[in-house]
C-alpha cells in the first residue's frame, strides 16, 4: 500500500476550549483535501472540553501539541512553528480554528509564496459564505492609523501587515526575525507586529484575493458604537491579553509602529474608549448604529468623488 508523502507545509492551528469550532475547522480541511496533502499541527492550550481526545479519535494523523493554558495565541503559534521548523517545514500556515478556507486556498497561498524567498501571503477572509463583507486579511499603515484592506477575488494587493487568521510564511522568516514575540504580545497584536517587522526585514507582504476563507469578526473587536457587548465588559477585558488595549501589548505595539509618536496612539486608544462609554450611556445603541452607517456612507461617497476627479 502506497502512502502519500505530504508536502513540507505545516498548518498551525491554536485552540482552546472550542471543541465544536475546532473540529469543524479540521473537517473543513479534510473535505478540501488539505488534511491529506499537508501536515496539520494543533496546539491545544489546556482545553478541558475534550478537544484533544476528540481530535486523536477522529483525526489520528493530526499532530496535537499540549499547552498549560498560558500560551495564548502567540505562544501557541510559536510552539507550533518551533515544532514544524524542527520537522523541516518549508512553509508555515497560520490558521485560526474559526477560519474555514475554501478548497484550493491553501495551495494558492503556498504557490504564490514560493514565487519569491521573501514573500508572505495572506488570504482574504469574509464574514459569511456569501462573500459580501470582507473581514480579516491585510492592513496598511497610513499616518497614525492602520486601515483594513480588501483584496477582490481577481486581485493581489500589497500591504504593510496582516491579521493572523490565514497566512502563509516561509521558513526563512525564523532566521531573519526569529519566532513571534509571545512575551511582549501574548495574544492580540502579535500577528500585525510580527508581519510588520517582517516587512521591515525585507519581506514583501501580499493579500491574495482568490485565496478565500470565511471568518466572522470577533465581536470583541467590532466598533464600540455598534457592539452589543456592554461597555463595562470592554473595560474589564482590558486586563486580559484578549483585548487589543491590553496595556503592556498595546504599549509595545504603539512604540513599534509609531516610535516616539506612539505615546499619542497609546493615550488615544483609552481616550476613545472613554468617549464611547459616555456616548453609550447617553444615546441608545440603535441610534449609534445609524450614525455609524451614515458616517460610512459619507466616507464612501467622498472616496468615490476623489477617484472620479
From TrEMBL:
Membrane-spanning intervals of the chain: 257-283
GO molecular function: transferase activity
Keyword Transmembrane assigned: yes
Domain of life: Bacteria
InterPro entries: Glyco_trans_2-like, Glycosyltransf_2, Nucleotide-diphossugar_trans
Glycosyltransferase 2-like domain boundaries: 11-158
Keywords, alphabetical: Membrane, Transferase, Transmembrane, Transmembrane helix
Protein name: Glycosyl transferase family 2
Higher taxonomy: Bacteria, Bacillati, Cyanobacteriota, Cyanophyceae, Pleurocapsales
